[in-house]
Amino acid sequence: MQANTTSAIEARQTGNRIVIGGIAAIVVILLTAAVLLFLNLPDANAFNARVEALFVENASLTGQAEIKLLEILAQSGTAFSETLDSYRFVIFVLLIFATALLVAAVAFLVMLIAMNRRMGQIERKGIEVNSLLISRDQNMVYLNNFEFKLTDAAIETLSVLAEARMDDEVLSGAEIEGVISGRPSSDCEEAAGATRIKRLRDTLGNQMISELLVRNIARRGYMLAIDKDVIRMV
């Protein structure tokens, strides 16, 4: 038992390390991509530097039209610089957004995997029931912290299954129908008991609870998949 617990803890720790490593890898990849992208973007002052070079190289251009043209070029360089700065900010925000989405996707994926594993354990072991109280007078069933209001037929079916579980018996559909109807099981149909089981599960409502609580054993019948010591009937 201790070895199984230790193995489970080690497996959980390994899974946590894998998740942390995956998230760290995503952040590193996006950070590297961002650095490479920003390094390869053109310099925001490149256009202004070129316009300044034109002023210096063409100092002889003293005409009003030439000076006006150079001023327009300088203004265009300033506009280009401001536009490129805004593009840098937009790219930065998009990269942050992409990082957050990828990290969230990894987290949700891990949660789904953990939930599927938990559901698999529940399906293999059944529901861990600490108490099952059946009140026939009130047609109420108290399962752990869950409270269910059942119909008369459903409470009868559950009571028969509970009594059979306390006697370590597995009842077929015909036997369930026979106990409830008071007839010999040989005179009852298997389908009638199966119908009672289906109605009981429908009344319980929660599919996971109903399917795992009332276990169908192939070629044998039906039983409650709980410890008989937790069953109480009043």
Overall residue-averaged pLDDT value: 76
User: Counting H and I runs of at least 4 residues, what is the number of helices?
Assistant: 7
Low-confidence segments: 1-5
The H/E string reads HHHEEEHHHHEEE
Q: Mind summarizing the main beta sheet?
A: 4 strands, mixed
Keywords: Membrane, Transmembrane, Transmembrane helix
InterPro entries: Sig_transdc_resp-reg_C-effctor (IPR016032), WH-like_DNA-bd_sf (IPR036388)
Transmembrane segments: 18-39, 89-115
GO molecular function: DNA binding
Give the structure's gist in a few sentences.
With 234 residues, the chain is α+β, with helices and mostly antiparallel strands.
What does this structure look like?
The protein has helices at 2-40, 46-57, 64-125, 152-166, 173-181, 190-204, 207-213, and strands spanning 132-135, 140-143, 146-149, 214-217, 221-224, 231-233. By secondary structure, the chain is an alpha+beta fold. The chain has two domains: 8-125, no CATH class; 132-233, Winged helix-like DNA-binding domain superfamily/Winged helix DNA-binding domain (Arc Repressor Mutant, subunit A, Orthogonal Bundle). The protein has a four-stranded mixed beta sheet, covered by helices on one side. Strands 4-5 form a two-stranded antiparallel sheet. A hairpin with a 4-residue loop joins β1 and β2. α4 crosses α6. The two termini are 36 Å apart. Residues 1-5 have low confidence and may be disordered.
